[in-house]
Design brief:
single chain, about 425 residues, alpha/beta, six-stranded parallel β-sheet, 23 strands, binds NADP nicotinamide-adenine-dinucleotide phosphate
Length: about 425
Amino acid sequence: MHSRTIPNWDGLREYPSGFAQMEHRKHVLFYRQERGGILVSAFSTNACFPTGTKFPKRVRSRITILRLDTYDCEREKMGNTKGYAAANAKSALGPFTFDRRQPREHDVAIGIKFCGICHSDIHQVRNEWGNSVYPMVPGHEIAGIVTAIGSKVTKFKPGDKVGVGCFVDSCRHCAQCRSNEEQYCPGLVVTYNYRTPQGELMQGGYSEKIAVDENYVLRMPESLPLDASAPLLCAGITLYSPLKHWSAGPGKKVAIIGLGGLGHMGVKLAHAMGAEVTVLSQSLKKQADGKRMGADQYFATSDEDTFAKLQNYFDLVLNTVSSDLDWNKYLSLVNVDGTMVLLGVPEKPVPMGAFPLISGRRSLAGSMIGGIRETQEMLDFCGKHNTPAEIEMIPIQKVNEAYERILKSDVRYRFVIDMASLKAS
Ligand code: NAP
Ligand code: ZN
Ligand code: ZN
């Protein structure tokens, strides 16, 4: 927090947490440093700063107002929610009770039934990206049932099967939000491991309930089981989005590196889109599964022949691996004008040589989840093409064990937590 970046504002008091209060007007500002200025949101119990509010001159030049909200702090304090949390980067997950906000007028309250375990949960619980906030309730593959709605909600009603993915809000004004690619919004509010400018610590889906603005809630496919649909909300969209972006379909050769949570959805989706699909896995152990899911070919990357055989073969290579790989070697499998897309997030940077790129006009790209509109499109696609995730259901008490198994690539192919098991904690 950069409270010192709003200097000399009469009546403004700084708090160590980064809140600033203008006492004489009974207004409170929350702010944080953003690339283009300072993101500000404001509330008071009887008024809020509408968009375009004239801030004092000295402050105005430093502030970019991206979004303003009314905010009722009394209501925010309510709600006891049971979940599982990590207390710090070294601790196992354990039972944890915390406050969630009550539904606001545009909010949908959701009773969480199932939550998938994404490898990103492990990265964040263990602070492998260096940005973790504790205590942390992970989980961004949330599937549940609507239990209540705010007075202004129009899209959902109690009883609906709904989902929440990796983010629960965004600024709604920037170019990315306007083009339905909120995942790249600089003001993105991710589902957990994030403290909002208002000071709310967001907590994820390893818990019994959540309230989310209806514009960030997804409708789950009626034709698929809810438990096996939960992983679509991260693993599904993370693969669907680049497959669409790089036009996977008939006549295109697509490789998926790593047959884990993300990878197995990649195989199913690329196959359903009509592409030729090849799995590049560490071994041939999961070959039969991969082929059943729709892979046309399956190769072991532990076999050096694989790289010789497949030189310049693919139009699109999607890399879901979270460990360090020799990207230069994998890039040589990409055909002229083809693309390798990084989806996995290894801890360390990997050096890239120029030759694998220039010697085939190849592209190296990255891609992160997908926007709300595309996520809904993906869910509808999965419903239509019958492509649920393959899951192993666990009670929440087994979550730490599941993490260890994921780290050993012993996952077939996504763990999903049955949230009914929380009652036993
Ligand atoms: P996962 O279920 O653990 O799958 C990763 C797969 O990578 C494993 O099943 C394994 O497949 C392969 N692998 C593991 N260690 C390897 C090694 N040392 N060398 C080669 N291959 C190895 O994980 P996930 O949930 O799919 O997530 C994968 C990565 O994507 C994570 O880093 C996660 O944070 C990231 N992610 C990114 C996005 C995004 O928006 N870009 C979204 C979600 C997750 P085989 O056994 O078949 O080799
Ligand atoms: Zn994820
Ligand atoms: Zn935005």
